[in-house]
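Pasting as-is:
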Amino acid sequence: MRFVDLIEKKKKGLEHTKEEIQYIINSVMNGNAEDYQIAAWLMAVYFKGMTLEETAEFTKAIIASGETIDLSALRTPDCPHIADKHSTGGVGDKITLILIPILAACGVPVAKLSGKGLGHTGGTIDKLESIPGFNTDLSVEELIEKVKNTGLAICAQTKQLTPADGKLYALRDVTATVDSVPLIASSVVSKKIASGADYVVLDVKYGSGAFLKTPDEACELAQWMVNIAEKLGKKFHALITSMEQPLGRAVGNAIEVIESIEFLKGNMTSDIKQLTFEMAALTLGELGICNSKEEAYIKIEESINSSKALEYFKKLIESQCGNTLVTENYRFFPQPNYAFQLKSETSGYISNIDAYKTAYACKLLGAGREKKTDNIDYSAGIYLNKIYGEYVSTGDVIATLYANDPDKIEKAMDYLETAYTYSYDMPQSRNMIYRII
């Protein structure tokens, strides 16, 4: 078998056999194929696609390229399956920080592997690392032990999982082949299954603040991921959700953790509540902990009203060496040197806050990174004092920007101002969830 022949085959749009897929992944891992050959094959896949069977075999081979995490020690009679969640990424997306403590409070042990953000704002790991002392660098053994002791743990992804995907992604990133649906789907599903999950709830976003721009594109990717997982004997649900506007009021790192803590104290925006409750209810139903969505919603509400979910968030922080005082006094988070208020120059109802423009303004403040090696300013961020549907008068503060460089704030303010759209009439209430697959 020669790699060049497989490039030729895929160039013609033909389907690879299981053996050919395995040969491709082996060649990626052992160096028998040159980068330019792999890049040529990726481009052929980009234009000709892969069948579901091919993609499932491709995903299976990627999983087998590295270690897999065995979480069977975390299964209990009351919760015999391991759950996980994944988001395709968005602006102000702090759902993981809220959902995981709620699930733990409802009796679901969660061992979550997350990534750092590469873009306008940080990822889940960046947000958690804004908590002084919080350690996200855990071995698999430490991860499992912490979940056994506290019911939950969140740590950075290990390089031992799906290494073939890492090599392939590096090439996809520099050859304009990232946005191939089969390749995206296999990348996500392989990492989730290698992480030890039996059931995964996906948040697949579309809109100006997501890499998928339309609901149809998001539905296509979600269906692929659900189908691949089914082929590999796993159950996934996918929520197709809007990212036309930021989630909640906070965009950044420390500022999003603060909003998450406030949510667990009962102070919540309707958009975050809708997504969190739906993802939690799906998980509780699929794991057999609740028999209906209504029962699940009651259980979720109780976990928040009783402060049990907040206590689990404190356990998470304490278990991973963070300062638990941040849950009571937000001054323990990294503090910015400057805060500036953006005021409205008109009056009316806010009918839109463009998610991409908000994220870009946040990046200008220092909350994101271009390269994985870039430093991130945990204290930088944006608080949206006024959000969708709220009325503002001329001169009202619509947003507060935080940074350590006043020059950055001036540029970000100019950009953020263009994100707001106003209307004379009150806009209709938003449904964040477009579809569940």
